[in-house]
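Renewal narrative, Specific Aim 1. Our central claim is that a sequence can be written position by position from structural information alone. The example that follows is taken directly from our test logs and has not been curated for this report. It begins with the structure tokens describing the chain, in the order in which they were read.
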């Protein structure tokens, strides 16, 4: 769908010189330098944005930053995925880059990720106005592709894509606005994609898996012949997932007694799974219900990632 007015040029760069990457880090493991090296081999520059890491983990960040074409940007405090992306993309805009591929610190890209996404983007731009082109990936926990496409399909339209491995037009970023920092981490990508689509931009994903990635620390159990997966996110993440989801639903116009009842029932089911199958389930369920309360109120003042 094309947006009316406010036309911008969304063609990809002709070469990787105008393509950069943004990687957000926070207490990374020792594998960060090698992952950043694989990213740097595919882009004109890597903006490595660190969210106030301290202690021994700084060594991995400094080793990654000492590589060619890598620039380290340090945030004075933890601004989350949203703030880290905004800092890196603002730097990319100042330096005149046309597109950026976004990564979190744990994603491991295929060597052909950038070239494949750029080729797909050129085809999309001939008939649409893409803002984001995400990457199908192999889920490390489940050992299978996250996205399932029709046979022969190379790219698929999406409601939203995960941030990591996503090619983003910087002209579109300027039009859509920054990532939502009060969301900090969870549903930051969903919010941004929804805003893009509301402005008439396209959101797509490559059908070919071009990255290895893990969501949380997922584990599964077989219960009466059914496999149940749980993500094992900590309590503060559970809070954000619930709160931010309800805020987005309210902003999309969902309301009324029926919606509230369905949402309440869904929350009960999720609470039961967490309580039964995850460690520290009671603390996580309490956090989820605090998120439910604050989400209904659209209250984003709570910052559970900060030390109390």
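The sequence written for that structure reads:
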């Amino acid at each position: 769908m094309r947006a009316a007015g406010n036309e911008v040029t969304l063609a990809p760069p002709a070469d990787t010189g105008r393509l950069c990457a943004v990687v957000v880090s926070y207490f990374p493991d020792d594998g960060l330098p090698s992952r950043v090296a694989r990213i740097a081999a595919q882009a004109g520059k890597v903006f490595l944005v660190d969210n106030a890491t301290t202690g021994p983990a700084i060594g991995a960040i400094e080793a990654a930053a000492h590589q060619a074409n890598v620039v380290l940007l340090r945030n004075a405090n933890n601004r989350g995925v949203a703030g880290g992306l905004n800092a890196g993309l603002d730097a990319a805009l100042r330096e005149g880059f046309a597109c950026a591929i976004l990564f979190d610190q744990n994603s491991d890209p295929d060597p052909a990720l950038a070239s494949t996404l750029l080729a797909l983007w050129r085809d999309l731009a001939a008939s649409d106005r893409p803002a984001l082109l995400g990457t199908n990936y192999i889920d490390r926990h489940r050992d299978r592709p996250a996205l399932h496409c029709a046979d022969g399909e190379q790219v698929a339209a999406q409601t939203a894509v995960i941030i990591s491995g996503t090619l983003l037009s910087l002209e579109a970023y300027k039009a859509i606005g920054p990532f939502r920092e009060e969301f900090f981490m969870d549903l930051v990508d969903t919010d941004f994609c929804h805003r893009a689509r509301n402005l008439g931009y396209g959101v797509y994903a490559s059908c070919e898996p071009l990255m290895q990635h893990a969501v949380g620390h997922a584990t599964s159990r077989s219960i009466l012949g059914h496999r149940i997966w749980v993500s094992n996110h900590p309590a503060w993440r559970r809070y954000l997932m619930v709160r931010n989801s309800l805020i987005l639903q309210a902003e999309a116009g969902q309301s009324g007694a029926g919606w509230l009842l369905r949402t309440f029932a869904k929350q009960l089911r999720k609470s039961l799974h967490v309580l039964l199958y995850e460690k520290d389930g009671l603390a996580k369920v309490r956090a989820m219900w605090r998120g439910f309360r604050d989400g209904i109120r659209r209250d984003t003042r709570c910052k559970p990632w900060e030390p109390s």
